[in-house]
Write a structure and sequence with these properties.
218 residues, alpha/beta, globular, homodimer, Rossmann fold
Chain lengths: 218, 218
């Protein structure tokens, strides 16, 4: 990594402090919270769309969607059954930060929810540096992105608590060496829990849903 | 867009100034130069791999690859026939800038090349803000990323001179409304030249190759 100039260091320190405050707030309210990160188009919104109908009778769920522009994603989350769906437009910024999440949390009665899904801006670099204060960071990789992504975006792969490998239904149509991909993941984040699945076909969704359910009802 | 704080404004101004210097240098040496931008995994390196063998007997080509980490991409460009292939490791940075490009140009005898392909870091946000000084900016969209990307990453789609739509061989296996996608593109960047193609099957490559050839031999 580059040597950080002090102004960047200070911004990150201030962010970490606010992230800790967000975490305390979520923890006190009993809301299990997820920071979903991925490249553009890897399937963050699709995952939320597929997750909500499977859990909405068991958990009270809120979604917060971060985007450069539009409210397309929060509209989709609302349509899929989120009790509340809040859009953060970052105004050009390439990642969410703890201040933005705090602003969104202010709009929710947190004790009315069991699970909060936060969808970050599509980007494999910058979101890794800005903690939000959620309980778990989850990265969505995608088969058509290619098998070299852990090697090329190590910061993102290193820092997450769970890894989803989406679009496994496309495996027959692209070149993707699963062993090469998984060796890369293992070298950066040994033992990280992994969910291969397809938001399109539903294959593999059960394990992910069970993991969310177990964590949300602890 | 957010209001810029002065320090950011100054950084961008300084970058634009250096980009102009790079541009003058490339122009004087008679090198036609491309800044290739895309999400992670949309196919920047694959496009370079497919482009080089088709042009290497007609043009003298150099490649410069920007990455957070590894030299996987420049290795692939060299193997595909680039006369010179230079890796820029950005040390965590999420985009190339004009200073980084200048450092790479210093390593090349520019008058020995007709075409320079610069592969930016995989990111649909930050690279749009930092000009490099190349002649044309080219964005690679990818079918499995989904049809909503112009709406969600307008800054990137607005600023490019050409648009490649890669992985058209995957159209039968995913949901992608081409008309919705193209309406988004048209609203941001009316009349932008577009090349639908597949780096995997080679379909559509000819139009892209001809465009490069025409521009490089002007």
């Amino acid at each position: 990594m580059t040597q950080r100039i002090p102004v960047v260091e200070n911004i990150l320190n201030a962010n970490d402090h606010l992230a800790q405050e967000n975490h305390t707030r979520l923890e006190s309210a009993g809301v299990f919270s997820i920071n979903l990160m991925a490249s553009p188009g890897a399937g963050k919104t699709s995952l939320i769309e597929q997750t909500l109908p499977r859990l909405k009778d068991k958990l009270r769920i809120a979604a917060i969607d971060g985007d450069i522009a539009t409210s397309l994603d929060s509209d989709r989350a609302a349509a899929a059954g989120a009790l509340s769906s809040i859009q953060i437009n970052t105004g050009g910024n390439c990642h969410l930060d703890a201040v933005m999440l705090r602003g969104a949390l202010d709009q929710l009665q947190l004790n009315q929810y069991d699970l909060l899904l936060v969808e970050n801006v599509g980007n494999l670099v910058c979101p890794a540096e800005f903690k939000l204060g959620t309980h778990k960071s989850v990265l969505i990789a995608s088969i058509p992105e290619g098998d070299d992504k852990p090697y090329k975006y190590p910061g993102m792969y290193r820092g997450v608590d769970a890894l989803i490998i989406n679009k496994i239904d496309l495996l027959p149509y692209v070149s993707f060496r699963m062993d090469f991909f998984q060796r890369g993941v293992e070298s950066l984040n040994p033992g990280v829990i992994t969910f291969p699945l397809s938001c399109r076909t539903g294959e593999g969704m059960d394990a992910w849903i069970n993991w969310l359910l177990q964590n949300s009802t602890k």
